[in-house]
Design a protein that fits this description.
binds flavin-adenine dinucleotide; 12 helices; 36% helix; alpha/beta
Length: 393
């Protein structure tokens, strides 16, 4: 069984590792000349960290990741704590694996470091695919071609593989924009910010911040605001002054954190319906290419790691001459869960941004009453072991 993965993001690299562990022959083709992630943080919940642990990545994860001791929800104007749910040891106890905050570059590096030389091919942008009965041919922008029994599109939100097999898509602009900032932790030391996942909710906006990098070296924030900016790319610069203007009247702590950066990036948030299917012939999709979601559950990359784990289980004993049953099983196992995350993220976008009033009060009191367990509202998500589930099915 020979497999080609298109795209070396978090999903594509995780797939290279799970597929290799299953004894399969894998090549990953990436368009970029070097592997680079944006200077930003990423939250990795236990449903993915347990998969990465089993891939032997516990040591680099615990060295490079930050383990928040709690998730803390606060009110936008007076900073009142709405709820505090324990993470760290409580998370391990409840879900059997840690909750991590990473610098994205560290996470990408630790995945890449586990992949042997010769598997990853940079400067190969997939521009086309041709399906044959017994194989798929992939064409690259540089004139090169490669053949495989299965091709996996892990090429992100603007996936070429998805376009080739499914046709064009029609994303809907959500009316929200995410600004991001990252600074050395020393810059915000005077604010006494705890090592936790901090989430502030307010009318039409929310603000999330946490430490990343070995020894909590950096402080990272994401600010979601209404906006008309329509470019869905992290390379787009934003103005710190615009982000600050959006948080006029918010608690001074939020404004001080935004003001601690000199530059900010912004990303237009688009929403997309779930795809009817992910697989055509010998080609399938994973990660953002298959199930792009709004970032309000912090599950996009986590779900791509789950995809990688299940895909490898499905292909491990598959017949290279007839891959359809294995790919169908992969898609059928994964779709209900990723669709639930897409839907949950959409709902959170409404819930986080409620205007002050009756609904907001109801939300706050129900949150306060659930404060003793680690993220109980996400137990179905964090407590689920996709690999163990597969073995039992
Ligand atoms: C504001 C924000 C905050 C987020 N926070 C979190 C979080 O805390 N936790 C979480 O789990 N998720 C989070 N996400 C989502 C997460 O970033 C994505 O879901 C995740 O990075 C998707 O990984 P991927 O590997 O599928 O795609 P990508 O990371 O986009 O990787 C795709 C790769 O494919 C390559 N590529 C593209 N086209 C081609 C081609 N034609 N040929 C070859 N290579 C190609 C690209 O260069 C890239 O390297 C957040 C997203 C946003 C917008």
């Amino acid at each position: 069984m020979r497999i080609i993965v298109i795209g070396a993001g978090i999903g594509g690299l995780a797939a290279a590792l799970t597929l290799r562990r299953a004894g399969l022959d894998v090549d990953v083709f990436e368009q970029a000349t070097e592997l680079r992630e944006v200077g930003a943080g990423i939250q990795i919940s236990p449903n993915a960290s347990r998969i990465l642990r089993r891939l032997g990545l516990e040591e680099p994860m615990s060295r490079l990741g930050v383990r928040p001791h709690a998730v803390v929800f606060r009110r936008w104007d007076d900073g009142r704590e709405l709820a505090r749910q324990p993470l760290a040891d409580a998370c391990e106890r409840n879900f059997g694996a840690p909750y991590y905050h990473f610098h994205r570059a560290d996470l990408l590096d630790l995945l890449r470091a586990a992949i042997p030389a010769g598997v990853l091919h940079l400067e190969h942008r997939c521009v086309g695919l041709t399906q044959h009965n017994d194989r798929v041919e992939v064409q690259f922008h540089n004139g090169a071609t490669a053949d495989a029994d299965v091709v996996v599109g892990a090429d992100g939100i603007h996936s070429t593989v998805r376009k080739v097999i499914m046709g064009p898509e029609s994303p809907r602009f959500s009316g929200h924009v995410a600004y991001r900032g990252l600074v050395p932790a020393d810059r915000v030391k005077h604010l006494g910010i705890e090592i936790a996942a901090m989430a502030w909710w307010g009318p039409g906006h929310h603000f999330v911040h946490y430490y990343v990098g070995a020894g909590a070296r950096y402080h990272n924030w994401v600010a979601v605001t209404p906006g008309e900016w329509r470019v869905e790319s992290w390379t787009a610069k934003g103005e710190v002054a615009d982000a600050l203007a959006e948080f006029e009247g918010w608690h001074p702590q939020v404004r001080a954190i935004i003001g601690s950066v000199e530059t900010t990036n912004r990303w237009a948030l688009y929403d997309r319906d779930e795809l009817a299917r992910w697989t055509v012939g010998r080609v399938t999709l994973m990660g953002d290419a298959a199930h792009p979601m709004l970032p309000y559950m912090a599950q996009g990359a986590v779900q791509s790691i789950e995809d990688a784990a299940v895909l490898a289980k499905c292909l491990e004993h598959a017949d290279a001459r007839d891959v359809a049953p294995a790919l169908l099983r992969y898609e059928q196992t994964r779709k209900p869960r990723t669709s639930r995350c897409q839907e949950g993220s959409r709902r959170n976008g409404v819930m986080y941004h409620l205007p002050d009033g009756a609904d907001q009060k109801k939300r706050d009191s129900s949150l306060a009453s659930s404060a003793t367990a680690p993220l109980p509202q996400n137990a179905w998500l964090y407590g689920h072991d996709v690999e163990a589930e597969f073995e039992q099915s």
